Amino acid sequence: MENSNYSVGLDIGTTKIVAIIGKENEYGKIEVLGIGRSKSLGVHRGVVNNITQTIKSIQQAVEQAEADSGLKIGSVVVGIAGQHIRSLQHSDYITRANSEEVINEDDLDKLCNQVYKLVMLPGEEIIHVLPQEYKVDGQAEIKQPIGMYGGRLEANFHVVVGQVSSIKNIGRCIKSAGLDLGNITLEPLASSDAVLSQEEKEAGVALIDIGGGTTDLAIFKDGIIRHTAVIPFGGNVITEDIKEGCSIIEKQAELLKMKFGSAWPGENKDNEIVSIPGLRGREPKEITLKNLSKIIHARVVEIVEQVYVEIKNYGHEEQKKKLIAGIVLTGGGSQLKHLKQLVEYITGMDTRIGYPNEHLAGDSDQEIASPLYATAVGLLMNAIENKEKNLIYQEEAKTEEELVLEGHPEGRTFEKSKGERKNVFDVWSEKLKDFLDNAE
Questions:
Q1: Do residues 75 and 181 make contact, with C-beta atoms less than 8 angstroms apart?
Q2: What is the rounded distance in angstroms from the CA atom of residue 44 to the CA atom of residue 321?
Q3: Phi/psi zone of residue 433: left (φ > 0), alpha (ψ -120 to 50 degrees), beta?
Q4: Axis crossing angle, helix 250-260 with helix 235-246, rounded to the nearest 10
Q5: How far apart are CA 100 and CA 2, in angstroms?
Q6: Where are the alpha helices (DSSP H) in 250-373?
Q7: Which pLDDT score is estimated for 1?
Q8: What's CA 436's distance to the chain center, in Å?
Q9: Beta-strand relationship, 16-24 and 7-12
């Protein structure tokens, strides 16, 4: 089957790796064709720390998804998270050569590309440049400047920055697993595509994605991303605490957490006890559920408070920046019992659990609609969107070529302007080279 009508998202998490194949159906919903998951062994706190193990895990997930769908996976869109991610606000402007022409896509691209050239700290690279609002000739709060007249185009940007080495390691894993890297997306952005509605993004909402190794945060207001953060704690630290606190092995701690765990200690009676088989002939251990939920509660409170600090940093307490839709919890960690109540109690904000079923076709597998797969579904959506964009560009290029062949003047001007646009960049990079040479 040719690779033109389906896309693939690959979520490289700390606890699991998920490959998900899908396409858009005629109603604009996403039809999942195949899914594969494997245990993630080479990732710690969202960052690859063992390349060989990660490649193996990726291959396992990919093979499973291929077997499930009967399709071959070529290019994938991958998510990035980890404690090295930071975000900053930046504003920039361009002065347009001809203010008699209306602002078009090219002007916006030029402005974005300018931000990509910002000088970062050594070893850092820009992952996303997300425009917030534009200003045209000093007129503020413009959401979409295309089609307007103006000489000076300004914008505020939300810039997401990550470590070059981490990004390269992910690229290396993908290549070595025999795949092409289509795009790298910030994981909280992917999750928010999958679980948030447009109304929530307009009203103001904080998405908290509690994964195995990291907790990702994305804040939207007026339909625009305003703040992103990655907190280097997730479900794994809760498991670790249970393991230490109850002196049991990790596998048992994970099972205890999932089956009996609760984030609210008051729920359990003192006499509720779980018995855990001892190791190799030792006595079984008895653990009270009250103690279990006390351990979980302490750690969850810590994670939620760190997230709440980020929400306050964004400015949620100012009237204009208030997040009316409150908080949406997603990711595997959001399945912990009574978590919603605890989050509401700590933050005082409305909270719901986010399921990625908003954009899935009706007959999708129940399993995929679990918060566990929010990031993977979001990455798949991103992959489908990228594919559509590329097709549009190819179509445009084709029609322009046809115009040239038929001898139409429009075609020639397009070719010329394309050439000119490239030259601007060439001149710029030569200037930069000269500058660097002289600086040495």
A1: yes
A2: 34
A3: alpha
A4: 110
A5: 46
A6: 250-260, 289-314, 339-347
A7: 41
A8: 35
A9: antiparallel
As a whole number of Å, the CA-based R_g of the chain is 25
pLDDT digit string, tens, across residues 231-279: 999 999 999 999 999 889 999 999 999 999 999 987 777 788 999 888 8
> Could you report the per-residue pLDDT of 19-71, keeping only the tens digit for each?
999 999 888 889 999 999 999 999 998 899 999 999 999 999 999 999 999 99
Give CA–CA dist 33/31, Å, rounded: 6
Number of H helices, E strands in the chain: 11, 18
Residue 220, strand partner residues = 205, 225
pLDDT tens-place string over residues 347-367 = 999 999 999 988 888 777 778
Distance in angstroms (rounded) separating the CA atoms of residues 329 and 324: 15
* CATH number of this structure's domain 199-353: 3.30.420.40
Q: What is the DSSP letter of 2?
A: -
pLDDT in tens, 301-324: 999 999 999 999 998 888 999 999
Position 324, amino acid? I
Residue 311 phi, psi (nearest 5): -65, -40
**Residue 186 reports pLDDT greater than 60:** yes
- Rounded (5°) CA angle 129-356-180: 55
Cβ-in-10-Å burial (0-12, 13-18, 19+) of 362 comes to exposed
pLDDT of residue 404: 65
Can you say whether residue 331 is alpha, beta or left, with left for phi > 0 and alpha for psi between -120 and 50 degrees? left
